[in-house]
Write a structure and sequence with these properties.
heterodimer, A: 11 helices, B: mainly alpha, 5 domains, two-stranded antiparallel ribbon, 15 helices
Chain lengths: ~290, ~475
């Protein structure tokens, strides 16, 4: 089942990339032309927001945005909780949250004005906040089902991991202190919400020193090459647990506020989008129907 | 409660944004900027229908009229106006777009093709309010004066020549300028006029005549143009000088055509219709033999033969009762032979008789070599005597007798040699044997420096003058 979803997502991503490529081929000149020149181009009739292709992109894109909410329903409505794993839905949610805005951006022909621009910029806001949310989301430890682990559970997992490192690989207290220091847990814990940026910095640049750290520990332990690979994974996991535990409170706080941003933008986006769709239909812009 | 708290910012943001935003997908073009605003959408857009057209033509009524009339550039436009005139593209966007520029618009598309000189004329030379005649356009212009429609619209311009051009003919001729003029060089295009359309059709040489020859230019008027109407074309003399001075009437076409050589190649004329029907040798004569160039000013006089013919008799017969009328002696069948008979001649002073019947006229009426009648035959003599024709072989021996009919004293016209002389009338009457003596016995032939002649006078008439008194001569 996991592979089916992956395949579907790959097909979706592939289709999105092909669509972008096809648009570039067919309407590259149109989209790069100035706003004043576009109506003069022959391609305007089909690629304009109300054109056959342009309107189609809008309809497909907005449909994707509507489908995004299936994830929210799945997440919040009890009777739908039996519908697959939440992380899988999130993957679709993320894909649709990227593909939809891209198609809608082409639908707008990069002309952002009027009431519907609020929807557009809200959509962009939702998308960008989605990236942040996704980043914070993965900082909260979860089960495979997607359900959050409690702090005690993650601490228990960390404890078990440390025991393995001590017993099977012979890591000493000094080694564990070095790893603890490397994880930046103190900074994350002390900076609280601002620790988000510390986390981001560590994710982006901290791993450059990670290999040096592992080599340093491995050298003192004199372990085989095969064990070194396993050790690397375990140390990496330990660092992850350490950071997650340190960032636990901050992550939840951020996630709480994130919802306050992400959701309103999503609602604004969807409300104005529906108004936009309603006005369009009222004025007779029914695409091919 | 927490959910309410979450919804509040949504509502606040929405209200704020909606307050400053509108549904418009973009700014309207400058000319439509007065329609900006959410309340104005349906001014153009039709609720429930995609088409803009019904909204557009409410203001752009002249366009609707033209679409309905299938006229002009919009004659076949059925689609939404926005297809060609998309709006909401900003204030700077020009709703009327000419792909290759307005100046390169193919005017043929609207049924008024620009040709030749018209192609070089700036659009606004014609498309100005002065030339706009369509009522709907003029009303439109008046209705929206602030929109300066007159400076932008291409509609309403007259499609007649006089719509733009001044009628320099002052309405004298048809408004169908194209029947004479073209757009190449209109002032030189008059030759293209189909004169067959006029009441006076050009044929023959008339087709080669420059227009100004007949259609004179009245330079008193400004601008000076050819006179095209009011021409008197009923008679040829309206244009042509009548060299006949109306002598032949006004029906020139009876003799002349308009073809080349019209002065010489005349239409065969039935002279019998005239007061002078042609007969005899006159039928064989060229017209110009009588109607000579010198006579072109009028009809030749035909009362007398001498009006045409040279009087070869040099007025010698003028004193006759008929005043020398030619027809008294001649006919139209020829100058000779003459119709003058011996009987006629016998009516004259000189009766023809005897041997005179046998001689041709010219023996007496000889062509003179000198004098007033030099070169002409003489028909009149101051003194008509035998010696007017005959040579006096008697060397004027009888002249001194002062007898005007001296010759007839001895001679008759029957024979010169049969002398009928009465010797009794002389100083020497014959008697006796003298009667039987031959004349030449006494009248001997003598000779002088001019030759021989018979001596009649003076002559000795004593006996011894002829007789010798010897025996031998008795």
């Amino acid at each position: 089942m996991k592979y089916i979803h992956r395949t579907l997502l790959l097909i979706g991503i592939g289709s999105l990339l092909w669509t972008i490529w096809a648009i570039d081929q067919e309407a590259g000149n149109y989209y790069t032309a100035s706003q004043l020149d576009r109506p003069r181009l022959e391609t305007h009739s089909v690629w304009k927001p109300s054109g056959l292709y342009g309107h189609g992109l809008g309809i497909i894109g907005s449909s994707m945005l509507l489908l995004l909410f299936v994830y929210s329903i799945r997440k919040r409505v009890k009777i739908f909780r039996v519908w697959g794993r939440l992380p899988t839905w999130l993957n679709y949610h993320i894909f649709l949250g990227i593909a939809g805005p891209i198609l809608i951006t082409f639908h707008t022909t990069f002309k952002f004005g009027g009431l519907v621009s609020i929807s557009y910029w809200s959509m962009i806001g939702v998308m960008l906040s989605g990236f942040i949310g996704r980043y914070v989301y993965v900082k909260i430890p979860r089960r495979i089902s997607g359900n959050e682990l409690s702090l005690d559970e993650i601490k228990q997992r960390k404890f078990e991991l440390l025991e393995t490192l001590k017993k099977e690989y012979g890591l000493k207290k000094d080694h564990l202190e070095i790893i603890e220091h490397f994880s930046g847990a103190n900074a994350l814990q002390n900076n609280k919400i601002i620790g988000f940026f510390s986390f981001l910095f560590l994710d982006l640049f901290g791993w450059f020193r990670y290999h040096t750290l592992v080599k340093q520990i491995a050298k003192s332990l004199n372990i085989s090459q095969n064990d070194l690979k396993k050790l690397k994974i375990l140390i990496k996991q330990d660092i992850k647990y350490t950071r997650q535990i340190a960032f636990w409170d901050a992550a939840h706080t951020i996630f709480h506020y994130w919802h306050v941003i992400h959701r309103p933008f999503a609602y604004i986006m969807i409300i104005i989008m529906l108004i936009h769709i309603g006005v369009s239909i009222t004025l007779g812009y029914t695409w091919i129907f | 409660m927490s959910n309410i708290i979450k919804i509040v910012p949504i509502i606040v943001i929405l209200l704020l944004e909606v307050a400053f935003a509108q549904f418009s997908p973009g700014k309207l073009a400058k000319v439509h900027s007065f329609l900006e605003g959410t309340n104005n959408c349906t001014q153009c857009h039709e609720v429930g229908g995609k088409s803009l057209s019904s909204g557009c033509v409410e203001c752009h009524l002249p366009i609707k009229i033209r679409i309905d009339q299938q006229k002009g550039l919009h004659k076949d436009k059925q689609e939404d106006c926005g297809t060609c005139h998309p709006d909401h593209n900003g204030l700077k966007f020009k709703l009327v777009y000419w792909k290759n520029g307005a100046e390169n618009f193919d005017h043929k598309d609207i049924g008024f093709d620009l040709t030749d000189s018209h192609q070089k004329v700036e659009c606004r030379k014609c498309h100005i309010q002065k030339n706009m005649i369509e009522e709907s356009i003029l009303k439109w212009i008046d209705k929206y004066p602030e929109e300066l429609i007159v400076d932008r619209t291409w509609l309403g311009a007259a499609n007649t020549c006089n719509g733009c051009h001044e009628d320099i003919h002052r309405g004298e001729v048809s408004q169908d300028c194209a029947s004479c003029h073209t757009t190449s060089k209109w002032e030189e295009s008059k030759t293209s006029y189909n004169h067959d359309l006029a009441k006076f059709q050009l044929t023959g040489e008339h087709q080669k005549v420059s227009c100004e020859k007949c259609h004179t230019i009245d330079k008193k008027q400004k601008p000076a143009v050819m006179k095209l109407t009011g021409l008197n074309y009923q008679t040829c003399g309206s244009c042509h000088t009548d060299i006949h001075k109306s002598a032949y009437g006004n029906t020139c076409e009876k003799c002349h055509t308009t073809q080349a050589g019209w002065t010489k190649n005349l239409i065969p004329f039935d002279h019998n219709d005239t007061k002078y029907p042609l007969k005899g040798r006159h039928l064989k004569q060229n017209c110009t033999a009588c109607h000579t160039e010198k006579l072109l000013g009028s009809l030749p006089s035909y009362n007398k033969c001498s009006d045409c013919h040279v009087d070869k008799h040099q007025k010698q017969f003028n004193e006759r009762l008929d005043q020398g009328a030619c027809e008294s002696c001649h006919t139209v069948d020829g100058f000779i032979p003459t119709s003058y008979t011996f009987a006629d001649h016998n009516q004259s002073e000189f009766k023809i008789d005897g041997n005179h019947f046998a001689i041709p006229c010219v023996l007496c009426h000889q062509t003179q070599e000198k004098g007033q009648l030099k070169g002409f035959a003489q028909f009149k003599w101051d003194v008509l005597q035998c010696n007017s024709c005959h040579t006096d072989i008697h060397r004027e021996q009888f002249v001194r007798r002062e007898n005007p009919k001296l010759c007839e004293t001895c001679h008759t016209t029957s024979s010169f040699n049969i002398v009928n002389f009465n010797h009794e009338s002389t100083a020497y009457p014959l008697d006796g044997e003298h009667i039987n003596v031959n004349c030449e016995k006494c009248h001997l032939s003598v000779k002088d420096r001019n030759g021989n002649f018979t001596r009649y006078y003076p002559i000795a008439h004593k006996c011894e003058d002829c007789h010798s008194f010897n025996e031998k001569n008795k």
